[in-house]
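B., you asked whether I could sanity-check this one before it goes into the benchmark set. Here's the sequence:
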Amino acid sequence: MESQFEMNLDKLRTRIIKMSSLVDEQVSLALKAFDEEDLELAETVIDRDKKVNKFDRRIEKTCQKIIALNQPVAMDLRLIMSAFTINSNLERIGDLAKSVCSSFLELKSKPDFLERTRHYEMAAKVKEIIRDSIDSFNNSDAQLARKVLETDLILDSLFSENRQILIEYMSNNSDKIEQAVVLLEISRQFERLGDHAKNIAEDVIFIVEAQLIRHKYEKYLIDSFGEEEEDEGFDEDESREE
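And here's what the prediction gave me:
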């Protein structure tokens, strides 16, 4: 018979997978809204961000509950610790998909100089890196996670090149500065999407191989169990969880 601890772990994995699927769709729809100049779709992506935020809160509560009621060890502990940061990065990916749509709504249509930029190459890499980071978690695939780290370097390089292209274009086309600035902001949002996908991949490597790519878990443990939080009604919050 499955223990309560195992049931809670299954719930945690399921919620992360569902949130991953949602933010992957949000990114895909944001890119589609821009590519097809679909203002209504962009508005839909912005509105759906509320669902991402709801998953964020539920996952954080699930992590806190598991650690508070159990003493997980080894891979289970690594999963729970990583779930805090994976959840945070998924939430930020959702925010950035929303931001891409907000930026596009400022433009309302694709600039006529878009083909001169690296926009489409960056968009393709964004779609790839988000999907690969999510698949690496769903399949516990450290090798795919390492591919994500490599893709992020490519995306960073494309961003640097695209930024230079847009800066030079603005210096020679003063009438297009506003459009170029918005396009530069979208390019920056793409680069940040890659950063958050990379963070997820680093967590996957930590979960699967117990290899700590970088030091990033203390603040989540302190937030959950530090002295500052002890008097803030944690048990009361948990009693209200669905």
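One thing to flag: Confidence is low (pLDDT under 50) at residues 215-242. Otherwise nothing jumped out at me.
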